[in-house]
From TrEMBL:
<feature type="transmembrane region" description="Helical">
    <location>
        <begin position="104"/>
        <end position="122"/>
    </location>
</feature>
<feature type="transmembrane region" description="Helical">
    <location>
        <begin position="349"/>
        <end position="366"/>
    </location>
</feature>
<feature type="transmembrane region" description="Helical">
    <location>
        <begin position="415"/>
        <end position="434"/>
    </location>
</feature>
<feature type="transmembrane region" description="Helical">
    <location>
        <begin position="196"/>
        <end position="214"/>
    </location>
</feature>
<keyword id="KW-0813">Transport</keyword>
<keyword id="KW-0812">Transmembrane</keyword>
<feature type="transmembrane region" description="Helical">
    <location>
        <begin position="51"/>
        <end position="71"/>
    </location>
</feature>
<dbReference type="InterPro" id="IPR045018">
    <property type="entry name" value="Azg-like"/>
</dbReference>
<protein>
    <submittedName>
        <fullName>NCS2 family permease</fullName>
    </submittedName>
</protein>
<keyword id="KW-0472">Membrane</keyword>
<feature type="transmembrane region" description="Helical">
    <location>
        <begin position="21"/>
        <end position="39"/>
    </location>
</feature>
<feature type="transmembrane region" description="Helical">
    <location>
        <begin position="321"/>
        <end position="342"/>
    </location>
</feature>
<feature type="transmembrane region" description="Helical">
    <location>
        <begin position="164"/>
        <end position="189"/>
    </location>
</feature>
<feature type="transmembrane region" description="Helical">
    <location>
        <begin position="378"/>
        <end position="403"/>
    </location>
</feature>
<feature type="transmembrane region" description="Helical">
    <location>
        <begin position="244"/>
        <end position="266"/>
    </location>
</feature>
<feature type="transmembrane region" description="Helical">
    <location>
        <begin position="134"/>
        <end position="152"/>
    </location>
</feature>
<dbReference type="Pfam" id="PF00860">
    <property type="entry name" value="Xan_ur_permease"/>
</dbReference>
Length: 437
């Protein structure tokens, strides 16, 4: 059995093994398990049944991971995209007063367009047209982004009225839990201890429980809530997408998901060293996996699915094949039944892992041609824009819009791919739409 798995997932060619891949899959799930609880709370604000959303999130994440792992053989997990779920709930449903049933139909419509663009290899063409320096900037920018999320989740960085953000209070016990986990993980990583991130998370959890900063679960096993309130609701409400406003909503879902997912895929592949000659091998299969999962998610009853940046934790553990996320997918199914146990994996437990991964992903920034100002400027805007706008797609937009301008200014307009010119225009339109909504 082991030899069959190793052969199918090309362990030897990728320089990995069953133990490493399994541990990487567990680490990835541990880092992103919070989505099972966050997504129902966010979409619940739109009036959706939280229990149904929980089950839809678990099943759609599992199926997406299976497709990505078995078909594309990449260690990139899929789940409900953060940020887009907030746009779904607060901007579309609450802000625009659109019923969640209609909004879900909008997600389904956008996902079908997504599949068509993938089938005609338009997404693959766009990703391959992105210059190598910008792919490195995207990877580094995502690294800064997830490190920022880690600092924020761990209480080390908090909102500040005078200058937006500031240092969190050191008089809060949970903040010190984050500090403990971060210092321990850094020490273990520096000493080159195998599974340093995973060990750090386990030790932080144990400390949190022993100091009562993390409460023990009241029970262990819990059945999955019924899917009935959201299952196939998207199909039943397609006929309600009949206004210009709803057409804009569908287009916005499409654009945000397109570039969020593309940016995350590029960043994670760069981190894993899977990009060859500025191309991602089997990129078509990868895109089929994430576009298919977006359809599945909408039918089950959740906001758009996409590549999860927390996959970087598993990659940092040595995960290089699709078996990593097959393990993650299995844990999503199991997690659906053992949801009470997942409550011990708090933000303070995962925060150190995100910060460490941010450090690792930032290494790609060293390969950018910083001496060429025309390249360095848009690359810098991508790198800094992703964490500061709290959006992969918005950060990419800033750099892609600037790129043709700097190249025109240095009389190198012919060096810019026509696709990059087109993307600059698309992003201008994209940002105008978001500003309108």
């Amino acid at each position: 059995m082991r030899s069959m798995i190793a052969k199918y997932f090309h362990f030897k060619e990728l320089g990995t093994n069953l133990k490493t891949e399994t541990l990487a899959g567990i680490t990835t799930f541990t880092a992103m398990a919070y989505i099972l609880f966050v997504n129902p709370n966010v979409l619940g604000a739109a009036g959706m049944n939280k229990g149904a959303v929980f089950t839809a999130t678990a099943l759609a994440s599992a199926l997406g991971c299976f497709i990505m792992g078995i078909v594309a053989n990449y260690p990139i997990a899929l789940s409900s995209s953060l940020g887009i779920n907030a746009f779904f709930a607060y901007s579309v449903c609450v802000g625009m007063h659109i019923p969640w049933q209609t909004a879900l139909a909008g997600v389904f419509a956008a996902s079908i367009i997504f599949v068509i663009l993938t089938a005609f290899k338009i997404r693959e063409l766009i990703i391959n047209a992105i210059p190598a320096d910008f792919k490195r900037a995207i990877s580094g920018g995502i690294g800064l982004f997830i490190a920022f999320i880690g600092f924020q989740n761990g209480g080390l960085i908090v909102a500040n009225k005078s200058n937006l953000v500031g240092l969190g209070s050191l008089h809060v016990g949970t903040t010190w839990l984050t500090v403990f986990g971060l210092v321990l993980t850094i020490v273990l990583f520096t000493m080159r201890i195998p599974a340093a991130i995973f060990i750090g998370m386990i030790c932080t959890t144990i400390l949190g429980i022993s100091t009562k900063l993390i409460p023990l679960p009241t029970k262990i096993v819990s059945g999955m809530p019924s899917l009935k309130p959201t299952f196939l609701v998207a199909l039943k409400n397609l006929d309600k997408i009949n206004t210009l406003q709803l057409a804009v909503v569908v287009l916005t879902f499409l654009l945000v998901t397109f570039f969020d997912t593309a940016g995350t895929l590029v960043g994670l592949c760069e981190q894993a060293g899977l990009i060859k000659n500025n191309h991602i091998p089997r990129i078509g299969r990868t895109l089929v996996a994430d576009s298919s999962d977006m359809v599945i998610g909408s039918l089950l009853g959740t906001s758009p699915m996409g590549a999860f940046v927390e996959s970087s934790t598993g990659i940092s553990m040595g995960g290089r094949s699709g078996f990593t996320v097959v393990v993650t997918g299995l844990l999503f199914i199991i997690g659906g039944f053992f949801s009470p146990l997942l409550s011990v994996i708090t933000d303070q437990v995962t925060a150190p892992a995100l910060i460490i991964v941010g450090i690792l992903m930032a290494q790609s920034l060293a390969k950018i041609n910083w001496k060429d100002f025309a390249i360095a400027t848009p690359a810098f805007l991508i790198m800094i824009g992703i964490p500061l706008t709290y959006s992969v797609s918005d950060g990419i937009a800033l750099g892609f819009i600037m790129y043709p301008i700097t190249m025109l200014a240095t009389k190198r307009a012919k060096h810019v791919n026509i696709i990059m010119y087109s993307l600059a225009i698309v992003f201008l339109f994209f940002m105008w739409i978001l500003n309108e909504n």
